[in-house]
Design a protein that fits this description.
The structure holds two protein chains of two kinds. By secondary structure, chain A is mostly helical. Chain A is 78% helix and 0% strand. Chain B has two domains: 181 residues, Dipeptide-binding Protein, domain 1, CATH 3.90.76.10; 219 residues, Roll (Dipeptide-binding Protein, domain 3). The termini of chain B are far apart. Classes of the chains: A mainly alpha, B alpha+beta. Chain B: It comes from Nitratireductor thuwali.
């Protein structure tokens, strides 16, 4: 187990270095000149050159990258070009909000997704099954912006149950979590449905039923724990999907997370922030997968980590 | 002989502004709070660095400069200066400072602070986008290249007197001193916070920063020791950031927001304008903006004047106004109507596709040609570019649209052979200060037609450059009319060469809640966008 985690952590490091390299290359190739942007439209050529030197933008690519990597190893993500603030400070101030939203969204996804999946599987082929699967299809394909605005309009503006955007209390968390969760729930419900149908066909379920064990007990004690296994791996993958969704949802609900920070930085080509957020997102995805892999054997002892 | 141009207590002038009648101003009680929302977080509140329309007016409320404008107008007036003198030849400016002005940290502001602040902006280590504005001060070249510590042209005569010596007469210098980049900062606070000063701003302005939770909110509080008694009117302003404009509008209706800082979202514009509830809460005003299409005179066939004139005549500007719901007026020259020097009686090029075709035929391009139109990729800019594309197609010009991120369009414009045409929407040009010269240097003058420059038409007319320099050497206010006429002439000559097709001048629409009061002009102030924070007041404490 320890060897496995160590190996995975080394892999993670390599993946992050790879991602940092690819992102750095891509941003290096963007034709926008940060020095010119910082210097402004009234700057002289000498001023622009001076700023370029201070930022090290006149150095060859490999030197710039090695400098950045050196900074990373010391925990230095650089300083924002336009906000003149440490990128780590900016990210640290926004990370808790994003993690909270992610936790809320995963809770909603599992609650709705699994319930829908179980109900659909138990009523396979019926009208209920069809309706739920159509709903999950809509959920998967609906644009987050539209769902967000719709929920906001109905529950915050018309009904007044929740605040109209913002951050701070539990009430603020509900609508953005629902928006992200509603969309993800579609995947979970489909996955849960097929997984449960598969498990319900297994011999041990049939045996348990034949032995006269109550249906609910069979379902909760035998079928569900087995059917839920693929879902756990999915949560890890889901963190990656959240990273893209979070940009839109955070914008709609005014949620002060890193998605919003990334969006603002992309618009202004603030390269240190874009690099920083990309690396933090990559970390989240890789760690999400690692945690999912570590939890799986706890649920199913047949799975061994090697 | 030196002439005393202006003296007296400017505080009195504050109340006597044309925007606010004295009686009206004195009746207003101080107190209350206002909530303003923005989509994006505030980038920095360092006056030497902040250069976007969102932080511009916030910085103006936290810091003061030697000069400022009458609220709601483009008229200059002294702020930290009590009086000033300009030498006969227009190269020496001497300012007497107001005494007893305090920074938010309690220390008195002196002439040393003014000198330090301007030298800090010019110092390349500060990386200020405004350094270039101080180019006329003696010693600028050495200081901006990092070869000198300070500016040799700035002298502290005594704690309350500061003198600027210029290398050439500069009629815009007073405007430059009213820019945020010239606002005064205390050295000890800058040194304490280093590069993070923009997150811990300390100035001498009407408000002080009480709280900044990154990505969430900023709270400005009244500065109790503010030198200008009676200001600010409000006790507190809360800036909530990260709010979508559509959501902000819903919250305004709910009474939770007083001013949505990003304005009325385009998708909601007609609905809001037609809603009787909002009728009295929307204020419309001009702004110092022109939207234009540049034609790169270095790229054929735009090196031919007939072609450039044909493009000017081909574009149906009224139709473009409809695309943006009429939030602008048609432009026919580089300067906007609110700018001194605007030629009222100039008609511009008419919308005449047939005439345009004839001009193309005259240039030997009767069969038309293919070209590219660069545009920034956020709504409504690509839609405007499509309208221009259709108009050009009608006269035989096939322009393919290159829709890119803002920084990439700017980068392409700064290369001599990259962008044949650029639609400027979303990128340029809002004046930094209300003077006609501000629409010339970087975007139409020879200095801007360099790699990485902002003169995307690559138009360089040395005669006009000389005329511009001459106009800017007229410092005497008694000759302001002549100077204005010279600038008018320069822009009309530019139109004869037609390196641009001016399209429209944007209008501003500010929406506010019923509980925020103030003269209408304060809500469309040309330099304090979206509102003049120091001057508006809360109705519920009156």
């Amino acid at each position: 187990m320890v060897a496995y985690v160590a190996r995975r952590l080394i892999q993670t490091m390599l993946i992050l270095i790879g991602i940092s390299f690819v992102t750095f290359v891509l941003l290096y190739l963007v034709p926008a000149d940060p020095a010119r942007q910082i210097a402004g439209r009234s700057a002289t050529a000498a001023t622009v050159e001076n700023i370029r030197q201070q930022l090290g933008l006149n150095l060859p690519f490999h030197e710039q990258y090695l400098r950045y990597l050196g900074g990373l190893l010391n925990g230095d993500l650089g300083r924002s070009y336009l906000q003149k603030t440490e990128v780590s400070t900016l990210i640290a101030s926004r990370l808790p909000a994003s993690l909270l939203l992610m936790a809320g969204a995963i809770f909603c996804e599992l609650l709705f997704g699994l319930t829908m999946g179980v109900v659909a599987a138990l009523n396979r082929g019926s009208r209920i099954d069809e309706t739920l699967m159509v709903a999950s299809f809509v959920g998967v394909s609906a644009p987050q912006f539209v769902i967000g605005i719709l929920l906001l309009y109905i529950f915050a503006v018309q009904l007044g149950w929740f605040p109209i955007g913002g951050y701070g209390t539990f009430a603020h968390l509900v609508l953005p979590s629902l928006t992200l969760g509603f969309l993800g729930a579609g995947w979970y419900s489909r996955m849960m449905r097929s997984s449960l149908i598969e498990v319900l066909r297994q011999d041990y379920v049939r045996t348990a039923r034949a032995a006269g064990i109550a249906r609910a007990r069979v379902l909760l004690g035998h079928a569900l724990p087995n059917a839920i296994l693929p879902i756990i791996a999915m949560i890890g993958i889901d963190i990656g999907l959240f990273m893209s969704g979070i940009v839109v949802v955070e914008s709609v609900f005014g949620w002060p997370g890193i998605g919003q920070l990334a969006w603002q930085a992309i618009q202004r080509v603030d390269i240190p922030i874009i690099m920083g957020v990309t690396l933090v997102s990559a970390c989240a995805i890789v760690l999400g997968n690692l945690i999912a892999d570590l939890i799986t054997p706890l649920i199913d002892p047949r799975i061994r980590l090697r | 002989m030196r002439r005393l141009l202006l003296a007296g207590v400017a505080a009195a002038a504050l109340c006597a502004s044309p925007a606010l009648s004295p009686a009206f101003a004195q009746d207003i009680k101080q107190g209350g709070s206002m909530t303003v929302t923005y989509k994006d977080d505030v980038s920095t509140l360092d006056p030497a660095i902040g250069y976007d329309w969102q932080n511009w007016s916030m910085i103006k409320s936290l810091f003061d400069g030697l000069m400022d404008y009458e609220p709601g107008t483009t008229e200059l007036r002294p702020e930290l200066a009590e009086s000033y003198e300009i030498s006969e030849d227009g190269t020496v400016f001497t300012f007497k400072l107001r005494q007893g002005v305090k920074f938010h940290n309690g220390r008195e502001l002196t002439a040393e602070d003014v000198k330090y602040s301007i030298e800090r902006t010019v110092n390349p280590k500060t990386q200020s986008p405004g350094a270039g504005f101080f180019g006329s001060i003696k010693g600028f070249e050495e200081a901006s290249a990092g070869n000198a510590e300070g500016l040799s042209g700035v002298t502290v005569v005594d704690p309350y007197t500061i003198r600027f010596e210029l290398s050439r007469p500069d009629a815009t210098f007073l405007h430059v001193l009213a820019l945020n980049f010239a606002h005064v900062v205390p050295k000890e606070e800058v040194e304490k916070h280093g590069a993070d000063f923009g997150k811990h701003p300390v100035g001498s302005g009407a408000f002080r920063l009480a709280e900044w939770t990154l990505g969430q909110r900023l709270v400005f509080e009244r500065f109790q020791d503010y030198w200008n008694e009676g200001l600010p009117k409000l006790d507190q302003i809360v800036f909530e950031v990260g709010q979508e404009p559509v959501v902000a509008l819903l919250r305004l209706q709910n009474g939770e927001v007083d001013v949505p800082g990003d304005g009325i979202p385009p998708a909601k514009f007609i609905e809001v304008m037609n809603d009787p509830k909002f009728k009295d809460l929307i204020i419309q005003g001009g702004q110092l903006h022109t939207g234009y299409v540049t034609m790169n005179v270095k790229i054929p066939p735009f090196d031919r004047i007939e072609v450039r004139k044909a493009v000017n005549m081909a574009i149906n500007k009224d139709r473009i106004l409809r695309i943006i719901n009429g939030r602008a007026v048609v432009a026919n020259q580089p300067l906007p109507p609110t700018m001194p020097g605007y030629a009222e009686d100039y008609q511009g090029y008419p919308y005449d596709p047939e005439g345009a075709k004839a001009l193309l035929a005259e240039a030997g391009l009767g069969d038309g040609f293919e070209t590219e139109l660069f545009v920034m990729n956020t709504d409504p800019q690509p839609r405007i570019a499509q309208a221009i594309q259709q108009d050009l197609k009608a006269i035989g010009i096939e322009a393919s649209i290159k829709s890119l991120a803002q920084a990439n369009v700017i980068a392409a414009g700064g290369e001599e052979d990259q962008a044949p045409m650029i639609w400027s929407g979303g990128m340029a040009w809002i004046a930094d200060f209300p003077d006609p010269s501000n629409f010339y240097g970087p975007i139409l003058g020879c200095d801007g037609a360099v790699p990485g420059g902002w003169n995307w038409a690559w138009y360089c007319n040395e005669e006009l450059d000389a005329a511009a320099a001459e106009a800017d050497s007229i410092v005497d206010p008694a000759m302001a009319g002549e100077r204005e006429a010279m600038w008018r002439d320069i822009y009309l000559k530019i139109m004869e060469d037609a390196p641009w097709a001016p399209i429209f001048n944007e209008e501003r629409f500010t929406i506010r809640s019923e509980r925020i009061g103030g003269d209408d002009k304060l809500f469309v102030d040309p330099v304090h966008i979206p509102v003049h924070y120091d001057e508006v007041y809360a109705e519920d404490v009156q």
